[in-house]
Design brief:
The chain is mainly α and 249 residues long. Helix content is 79%, strand content 0%. It contains eleven helices and no strands. Helix 2 (32-44) crosses helix 10, helix 6 (114-138) runs antiparallel to helix 8 (155-190) and helix 8 runs antiparallel to helix 10. The longest helix has 36 residues, at 155-190. The radius of gyration is 22 Å and the shape is globular. The model has no long low-confidence stretch (mean pLDDT 84).
Length: 249
């Protein structure tokens, strides 16, 4: 039943979508079958794989670059309070700024292409990951650190054997949220700063002849890939090395 319920709910939504399309007086929104045929058309033209790979390429590089830089920075700031006091104010000033507000600057610096989109994805993921890592250290129970010191662990050993394993559950949650933000931003960036990808597909289908079947097809593909990415990250939470950090019902 746990596996059946989501599929039953999805089938219900598709059926309601089909009924709503049949009831509309004018063909404004394409139906499920028309959208499916649009996806088939993209596959036959070789655009489906091209656009999906282009979007995933940009997300991968921008997100990985953000994670590689943000995780050590966030852990460092959480561990050293003076450094946090110095750097936290500018981080909190930059954090509310939408990554999309950087689009003109990204185009000015990197031109129209992959680098602009990767830069925007990097910005979208960097600050949330930094703050998540910093808060993970703050929420670390003091008894863990005290126990490590009582066993004679040096500071590097304490960081490697106590800090990293203890913050990993919260850090994975932060990484999962940041990945969702990065996926949202790449779609918006592709509508403006590049000429390929799923975001470009949506805006190009709209401008090239009101192909709303391809517009909705792009939306469906974005949602499906986002679900797969989130499911993959949720599977990390089930690893034995981090599952202890989550409550059990």
């Amino acid at each position: 039943m746990r596996w059946l319920a989501p599929w039953a709910f999805a089938a219900t939504l598709v059926a309601m979508w089909h009924i709503a399309v049949q009831m509309q007086a004018a063909p404004i929104i394409p139906g499920p079958w028309t959208v499916l045929m649009g996806i088939v058309e993209l596959a036959e033209r070789g655009l489906l794989l091209k656009y999906v790979v282009a979007s995933l390429f940009r997300v991968t590089w921008g997100y990985l670059l953000a994670a590689v830089l943000a995780i050590p920075l966030g852990l460092f700031l959480g561990w050293h309070r003076r450094a946090e006091m110095a750097l936290n104010p500018p981080l909190q000033i930059l954090r509310p700024i939408s990554p999309l507000a950087w689009i003109p600057i990204a185009i000015l610096w990197f031109g129209v292409g992959d680098l602009s989109a990767i830069f925007l994805i990097f910005l979208a993921a960097f600050l949330p990951i930094t703050v998540s890592a910093m808060n993970a250290v703050h929420n670390l129970p003091a008894v863990y650190l005290n126990a490590g010191r009582n066993f004679g662990l040096s500071t590097p050993q304490l960081v490697y054997r106590v800090l990293y394993p203890a913050v990993l559950p919260r850090l994975i949650v932060g990484l999962r949220i940041a990945l969702g933000i990065a996926w949202l931003v790449v779609v918006a960036a592709e509508m403006i700063a590049v000429n390929s990808g799923l975001g470009f597909l949506i805006i190009d289908a709209r401008n090239a002849g009101n192909r709303y079947d391809l517009v909705v097809a792009g939306m469906v593909l974005i949602g499906a890939i986002g679900l797969l990415l989130d499911t993959g990250f949720r599977s990390l939470e089930k690893m034995k090395s981090v599952s202890w950090g989550y409550g059990t019902s």
